[in-house]
TrEMBL record:
<dbReference type="InterPro" id="IPR004360">
    <property type="entry name" value="Glyas_Fos-R_dOase_dom"/>
</dbReference>
<keyword id="KW-0223">Dioxygenase</keyword>
<keyword id="KW-0560">Oxidoreductase</keyword>
<dbReference type="GO" id="GO:0051213">
    <property type="term" value="F:dioxygenase activity"/>
</dbReference>
<dbReference type="InterPro" id="IPR037523">
    <property type="entry name" value="VOC_core"/>
</dbReference>
<dbReference type="InterPro" id="IPR029068">
    <property type="entry name" value="Glyas_Bleomycin-R_OHBP_Dase"/>
</dbReference>
<protein>
    <submittedName>
        <fullName>Ring-cleaving dioxygenase</fullName>
    </submittedName>
</protein>
<dbReference type="Pfam" id="PF00903">
    <property type="entry name" value="Glyoxalase"/>
</dbReference>
<feature type="domain" description="VOC">
    <location>
        <begin position="7"/>
        <end position="131"/>
    </location>
</feature>
<dbReference type="InterPro" id="IPR052537">
    <property type="entry name" value="Extradiol_RC_dioxygenase"/>
</dbReference>
<feature type="domain" description="VOC">
    <location>
        <begin position="152"/>
        <end position="269"/>
    </location>
</feature>
Length: 316
Protein backbone atom coordinates (compact mmCIF):
# COMPACT_ATOMS: atom_id res chain seq x y z
CA UNK A 1 0.00 0.00 0.00
CA UNK A 2 1.44 3.36 -1.07
CA UNK A 3 2.01 5.93 1.66
CA UNK A 4 1.14 9.59 1.06
CA UNK A 5 3.21 12.62 2.03
CA UNK A 6 1.43 15.91 2.65
CA UNK A 7 4.03 17.63 0.48
CA UNK A 8 7.31 19.52 0.82
CA UNK A 9 8.74 19.90 4.32
CA UNK A 10 11.71 22.07 3.35
CA UNK A 11 14.21 22.79 0.59
CA UNK A 12 17.92 23.22 1.32
CA UNK A 13 20.36 25.11 -0.90
CA UNK A 14 23.92 26.42 -0.99
CA UNK A 15 24.81 30.11 -0.80
CA UNK A 16 27.86 32.34 -0.47
CA UNK A 17 27.82 35.47 1.66
CA UNK A 18 25.52 34.94 4.68
CA UNK A 19 24.47 38.58 5.09
CA UNK A 20 23.49 38.78 1.42
CA UNK A 21 21.48 35.60 1.93
CA UNK A 22 19.63 37.14 4.90
CA UNK A 23 19.07 40.36 2.98
CA UNK A 24 17.44 38.53 0.09
CA UNK A 25 15.17 36.11 1.92
CA UNK A 26 14.32 38.09 5.07
CA UNK A 27 14.55 41.69 3.88
CA UNK A 28 13.37 41.45 0.26
CA UNK A 29 11.10 38.39 0.27
CA UNK A 30 9.92 39.11 3.80
CA UNK A 31 10.38 35.61 5.20
CA UNK A 32 11.16 35.14 8.87
CA UNK A 33 14.62 33.98 9.88
CA UNK A 34 13.30 31.27 12.20
CA UNK A 35 16.56 29.58 13.08
CA UNK A 36 20.20 30.61 13.07
CA UNK A 37 22.39 27.59 13.67
CA UNK A 38 25.34 25.80 12.06
CA UNK A 39 25.92 22.96 9.66
CA UNK A 40 26.31 20.14 12.19
CA UNK A 41 28.84 18.47 9.87
CA UNK A 42 30.79 21.70 9.22
CA UNK A 43 30.42 24.04 12.22
CA UNK A 44 32.32 26.84 10.50
CA UNK A 45 29.27 27.31 8.21
CA UNK A 46 25.88 28.71 9.19
CA UNK A 47 22.68 26.79 8.62
CA UNK A 48 19.95 29.41 8.18
CA UNK A 49 16.21 28.65 8.04
CA UNK A 50 13.60 31.02 6.57
CA UNK A 51 9.83 30.48 6.63
CA UNK A 52 6.55 31.76 7.97
CA UNK A 53 6.09 32.99 11.55
CA UNK A 54 6.65 29.49 13.02
CA UNK A 55 8.76 27.91 10.31
CA UNK A 56 5.89 25.56 9.53
CA UNK A 57 6.51 22.57 7.27
CA UNK A 58 5.88 23.63 3.69
CA UNK A 59 7.33 27.12 4.22
CA UNK A 60 10.98 26.48 5.09
CA UNK A 61 13.92 27.19 2.82
CA UNK A 62 17.31 26.59 4.39
CA UNK A 63 20.82 27.56 3.36
CA UNK A 64 24.43 26.66 3.96
CA UNK A 65 26.08 30.04 3.21
CA UNK A 66 29.82 29.61 2.83
CA UNK A 67 31.80 32.72 1.85
CA UNK A 68 33.93 32.11 -1.21
CA UNK A 69 32.17 28.90 -2.13
CA UNK A 70 32.20 27.79 -5.74
CA UNK A 71 29.29 28.56 -8.03
CA UNK A 72 26.82 25.73 -8.59
CA UNK A 73 25.21 24.81 -11.88
CA UNK A 74 21.48 24.20 -11.93
CA UNK A 75 20.60 21.01 -13.77
CA UNK A 76 19.40 17.45 -13.57
CA UNK A 77 19.37 15.86 -10.15
CA UNK A 78 18.19 19.07 -8.46
CA UNK A 79 15.22 21.22 -7.69
CA UNK A 80 15.35 23.41 -10.79
CA UNK A 81 12.89 26.07 -9.62
CA UNK A 82 11.55 26.70 -6.12
CA UNK A 83 7.97 27.95 -6.22
CA UNK A 84 6.49 30.34 -3.66
CA UNK A 85 2.76 30.95 -3.31
CA UNK A 86 0.89 34.17 -2.55
CA UNK A 87 -2.76 35.13 -2.41
CA UNK A 88 -4.67 36.05 -5.58
CA UNK A 89 -4.11 39.66 -6.58
CA UNK A 90 -0.52 39.77 -5.29
CA UNK A 91 1.64 39.31 -8.40
CA UNK A 92 1.52 42.98 -9.31
CA UNK A 93 2.83 43.91 -5.87
CA UNK A 94 5.67 41.40 -6.14
CA UNK A 95 6.63 42.43 -9.64
CA UNK A 96 6.99 46.04 -8.48
CA UNK A 97 8.79 45.10 -5.28
CA UNK A 98 11.34 42.87 -6.96
CA UNK A 99 12.04 45.39 -9.69
CA UNK A 100 12.49 48.11 -7.05
CA UNK A 101 15.43 46.09 -5.73
CA UNK A 102 16.89 45.69 -9.21
CA UNK A 103 15.80 42.07 -9.56
CA UNK A 104 14.95 41.11 -13.14
CA UNK A 105 11.53 39.45 -13.43
CA UNK A 106 10.15 37.39 -16.30
CA UNK A 107 6.59 36.14 -16.75
CA UNK A 108 5.80 32.52 -17.51
CA UNK A 109 2.85 30.17 -17.50
CA UNK A 110 2.30 26.46 -16.86
CA UNK A 111 -0.98 24.60 -16.69
CA UNK A 112 -2.98 27.86 -17.01
CA UNK A 113 -1.20 29.49 -14.06
CA UNK A 114 0.85 32.69 -14.28
CA UNK A 115 4.29 32.88 -12.66
CA UNK A 116 6.80 35.60 -11.89
CA UNK A 117 10.25 34.06 -12.31
CA UNK A 118 13.50 35.52 -10.98
CA UNK A 119 16.80 34.58 -9.36
CA UNK A 120 18.19 35.25 -5.92
CA UNK A 121 21.56 36.95 -5.40
CA UNK A 122 23.38 33.65 -6.07
CA UNK A 123 21.41 32.66 -9.16
CA UNK A 124 19.02 30.23 -7.43
CA UNK A 125 15.90 30.04 -9.60
CA UNK A 126 12.65 31.10 -7.90
CA UNK A 127 9.10 31.86 -8.95
CA UNK A 128 5.89 33.17 -7.40
CA UNK A 129 2.38 31.97 -8.21
CA UNK A 130 -1.05 33.01 -6.95
CA UNK A 131 -3.38 30.43 -5.38
CA UNK A 132 -6.32 30.54 -3.00
CA UNK A 133 -5.27 27.47 -1.02
CA UNK A 134 -2.89 27.67 1.89
CA UNK A 135 -3.06 29.69 5.09
CA UNK A 136 -1.65 33.18 4.96
CA UNK A 137 1.59 33.89 6.77
CA UNK A 138 1.41 35.49 10.20
CA UNK A 139 4.74 37.24 9.58
CA UNK A 140 5.22 40.54 7.79
CA UNK A 141 8.40 42.54 7.39
CA UNK A 142 9.85 45.39 5.38
CA UNK A 143 6.58 47.02 4.38
CA UNK A 144 5.06 43.91 2.78
CA UNK A 145 1.29 43.94 3.47
CA UNK A 146 -0.04 40.80 5.14
CA UNK A 147 -2.42 40.31 2.21
CA UNK A 148 0.54 39.94 -0.16
CA UNK A 149 3.02 38.12 2.11
CA UNK A 150 4.45 34.83 0.91
CA UNK A 151 2.46 31.93 2.38
CA UNK A 152 5.18 29.35 1.83
CA UNK A 153 5.98 26.98 -0.99
CA UNK A 154 3.61 26.51 -3.87
CA UNK A 155 5.78 23.54 -4.79
CA UNK A 156 8.80 22.99 -7.01
CA UNK A 157 9.96 22.10 -10.50
CA UNK A 158 12.20 19.03 -10.35
CA UNK A 159 14.96 18.65 -12.95
CA UNK A 160 15.67 14.96 -13.51
CA UNK A 161 18.22 13.02 -15.51
CA UNK A 162 15.59 10.27 -15.77
CA UNK A 163 12.12 11.87 -15.59
CA UNK A 164 10.19 8.60 -15.86
CA UNK A 165 11.98 7.22 -12.80
CA UNK A 166 11.40 10.46 -10.87
CA UNK A 167 7.68 10.65 -11.60
CA UNK A 168 7.32 6.97 -10.76
CA UNK A 169 8.82 7.69 -7.32
CA UNK A 170 6.55 10.70 -6.84
CA UNK A 171 3.48 8.59 -7.57
CA UNK A 172 4.28 5.13 -6.27
CA UNK A 173 6.62 5.93 -3.39
CA UNK A 174 5.55 9.36 -2.12
CA UNK A 175 1.89 8.95 -3.03
CA UNK A 176 1.39 12.10 -5.10
CA UNK A 177 -1.38 12.11 -7.70
CA UNK A 178 -0.84 12.92 -11.36
CA UNK A 179 -3.19 15.77 -12.25
CA UNK A 180 -2.02 17.10 -15.65
CA UNK A 181 0.39 16.70 -18.55
CA UNK A 182 0.95 19.14 -21.42
CA UNK A 183 3.68 17.55 -23.52
CA UNK A 184 6.43 19.56 -21.83
CA UNK A 185 5.68 19.05 -18.13
CA UNK A 186 3.82 16.57 -15.98
CA UNK A 187 2.16 17.83 -12.79
CA UNK A 188 1.71 16.00 -9.51
CA UNK A 189 -0.15 17.08 -6.40
CA UNK A 190 0.18 15.97 -2.78
CA UNK A 191 -2.47 15.84 -0.07
CA UNK A 192 -1.50 19.10 1.64
CA UNK A 193 -2.62 22.63 0.78
CA UNK A 194 0.89 24.13 0.63
CA UNK A 195 4.15 22.86 -0.84
CA UNK A 196 1.92 20.52 -2.76
CA UNK A 197 2.36 21.02 -6.54
CA UNK A 198 5.32 19.36 -8.25
CA UNK A 199 6.08 19.85 -11.95
CA UNK A 200 8.63 17.71 -13.79
CA UNK A 201 9.91 18.43 -17.31
CA UNK A 202 9.30 15.36 -19.45
CA UNK A 203 12.68 15.75 -21.17
CA UNK A 204 15.81 14.71 -19.26
CA UNK A 205 17.95 17.59 -18.01
CA UNK A 206 21.75 17.53 -18.12
CA UNK A 207 23.15 16.91 -14.66
CA UNK A 208 23.88 19.97 -12.51
CA UNK A 209 26.56 20.49 -9.88
CA UNK A 210 26.54 21.57 -6.24
CA UNK A 211 27.57 25.07 -5.20
CA UNK A 212 26.20 28.50 -4.41
CA UNK A 213 22.91 29.09 -6.19
CA UNK A 214 21.95 25.41 -6.40
CA UNK A 215 19.65 23.25 -4.30
CA UNK A 216 21.19 20.45 -2.25
CA UNK A 217 18.02 18.47 -1.46
CA UNK A 218 14.24 18.55 -1.15
CA UNK A 219 12.55 17.16 1.96
CA UNK A 220 9.08 15.61 2.14
CA UNK A 221 6.79 15.58 5.16
CA UNK A 222 6.24 12.75 7.65
CA UNK A 223 3.51 13.66 10.15
CA UNK A 224 5.19 12.08 13.20
CA UNK A 225 8.00 9.80 14.36
CA UNK A 226 6.04 6.58 13.95
CA UNK A 227 5.14 7.41 10.37
CA UNK A 228 8.77 8.36 9.76
CA UNK A 229 9.83 4.81 10.60
CA UNK A 230 7.14 3.54 8.24
CA UNK A 231 8.54 5.80 5.51
CA UNK A 232 11.98 4.30 5.97
CA UNK A 233 10.59 0.81 5.48
CA UNK A 234 8.58 1.96 2.47
CA UNK A 235 11.67 3.50 0.84
CA UNK A 236 13.58 0.25 1.33
CA UNK A 237 10.72 -1.82 -0.09
CA UNK A 238 10.64 0.45 -3.14
CA UNK A 239 14.27 -0.46 -3.77
CA UNK A 240 16.21 2.55 -2.49
CA UNK A 241 18.72 2.55 0.35
CA UNK A 242 17.78 5.22 2.91
CA UNK A 243 20.18 6.48 5.55
CA UNK A 244 19.53 5.75 9.20
CA UNK A 245 17.22 8.22 10.94
CA UNK A 246 19.21 11.33 11.90
CA UNK A 247 18.22 13.77 14.65
CA UNK A 248 18.39 17.28 13.15
CA UNK A 249 17.16 18.88 16.41
CA UNK A 250 14.07 20.45 14.82
CA UNK A 251 13.01 17.34 12.89
CA UNK A 252 14.20 13.81 12.30
CA UNK A 253 15.53 13.08 8.83
CA UNK A 254 16.39 10.25 6.49
CA UNK A 255 17.88 10.62 3.02
CA UNK A 256 18.04 8.72 -0.26
CA UNK A 257 18.82 9.61 -3.86
CA UNK A 258 16.09 8.73 -6.33
CA UNK A 259 16.93 7.31 -9.76
CA UNK A 260 16.57 10.69 -11.47
CA UNK A 261 19.52 11.94 -9.41
CA UNK A 262 17.65 14.14 -6.91
CA UNK A 263 18.54 13.85 -3.22
CA UNK A 264 15.28 13.28 -1.34
CA UNK A 265 14.85 13.65 2.41
CA UNK A 266 11.87 12.66 4.51
CA UNK A 267 11.54 14.87 7.59
CA UNK A 268 9.19 14.81 10.55
CA UNK A 269 6.82 17.70 11.23
CA UNK A 270 7.70 17.66 14.97
CA UNK A 271 9.26 18.95 17.12
CA UNK A 272 9.61 22.27 15.25
CA UNK A 273 11.70 25.39 15.76
CA UNK A 274 10.36 26.48 19.16
CA UNK A 275 12.12 23.47 20.69
CA UNK A 276 15.05 25.52 21.96
CA UNK A 277 13.94 29.17 21.93
CA UNK A 278 10.65 31.00 22.51
CA UNK A 279 8.34 31.28 19.50
CA UNK A 280 8.39 35.09 19.69
CA UNK A 281 12.20 35.17 19.56
CA UNK A 282 12.94 32.63 16.84
CA UNK A 283 16.14 33.32 14.93
CA UNK A 284 17.42 35.89 17.39
CA UNK A 285 20.37 33.90 18.71
CA UNK A 286 22.86 31.41 17.34
CA UNK A 287 21.49 28.07 18.52
CA UNK A 288 23.91 25.17 18.93
CA UNK A 289 23.28 21.52 19.70
CA UNK A 290 24.51 20.56 23.14
CA UNK A 291 27.65 18.84 21.85
CA UNK A 292 28.85 22.11 20.31
CA UNK A 293 28.04 24.39 23.26
CA UNK A 294 31.50 23.99 24.85
CA UNK A 295 32.94 25.42 21.62
CA UNK A 296 30.51 28.34 21.26
CA UNK A 297 33.13 31.10 21.53
CA UNK A 298 35.32 29.56 18.86
CA UNK A 299 32.38 28.83 16.57
CA UNK A 300 30.98 32.37 16.85
CA UNK A 301 34.42 33.85 16.19
CA UNK A 302 34.61 31.92 12.89
CA UNK A 303 31.21 33.06 11.62
CA UNK A 304 30.56 36.38 9.90
CA UNK A 305 28.04 38.49 11.83
CA UNK A 306 24.55 38.70 10.30
CA UNK A 307 21.44 40.71 11.04
CA UNK A 308 17.91 40.98 9.74
CA UNK A 309 17.56 44.55 8.54
CA UNK A 310 15.08 46.61 6.58
CA UNK A 311 16.18 47.53 3.07
CA UNK A 312 14.65 50.16 0.85
CA UNK A 313 14.21 49.59 -2.85
CA UNK A 314 14.01 52.35 -5.40
CA UNK A 315 10.52 53.75 -5.64
CA UNK A 316 8.68 52.88 -8.83
Amino acid sequence: MTMHTAGIHHITAFAGNPQANVDFYASILGLRLVKKTINFDAPEVYHLYFGNEAGSPGTIITFFPFPGSRKGRIGGGQVGITTYVVSPGSLGFWESRLESFGIAVTKASRFSERYLQFEDNEGLRLEIVEREEGRGSGWTFGGIPAAHAIKGFGGAVLFSVNPQKTVDALEHLLGLSKVAEDGEYVRYRSEGDIGNVIDVPLAAVERGSDGAGAVHHIAWRAKDYDQHEEWRSSVEQYGYRPTPVIDRQYFNALYFREAGGILFEIATDPPGFAKDEPADRLGGKLMLPEWYEPHRSQIEANLLPIEVRELEGKRQ
